[in-house]
Amino acid sequence: MRFKLFGELPSEDKAVIPVGELGRRLGVSDTVVSQHLRVLSGIGLVGHHRSGRVAHYYVKAAAVRAAREILAQGLPAMFAPASQQSQLSARNQLIGTVIELRRGEVSTEVVLEVGGQQIAAIITTASADRLELQVGDVAAAVFKAHDVIVLK
Prior knowledge:
The protein has two domains: about 1-60, Winged helix-like DNA-binding domain superfamily/Winged helix DNA-binding domain (Arc Repressor Mutant, subunit A); about 65-140, CATH 2.40.50.100. Helices cover about 35% and strands about 30% of the residues. It has five helices and six strands. The strands form two sheets. The chain has a four-stranded antiparallel β-sheet with strand order 5-4-3-6. Strands 1-2 form a two-stranded antiparallel ribbon.
């Protein structure tokens, strides 16, 4: 129910859905919606604005990004069989979410969002296909010691 509810909530700048409307959309009572919203608010993923007696709830985008990063680091290791867990010697790894793929005939640009920042990498299209990369996937940007990135 919380996942369904979370999916119905707007971003903060569009917080116009009252509890009653959320209940109607999900086919449950206002009380059920309120209980789940209290839990989501308690863990910091949801906020609200009051307009008189009506509270309008919204998703806290920064908190969701932070939770996504924590889960991206922990979940693959927790659920993958030991034989399928990747081993990598590189220490410089940034875990993020694929937000864009620009496929070309030979190369593919992969854009990851990591902590609100974007990292782009060019890989072969064959590698992107082999990895079955899709927008929304959790992936890691790995940096080698001999590569240099310039930041201004």
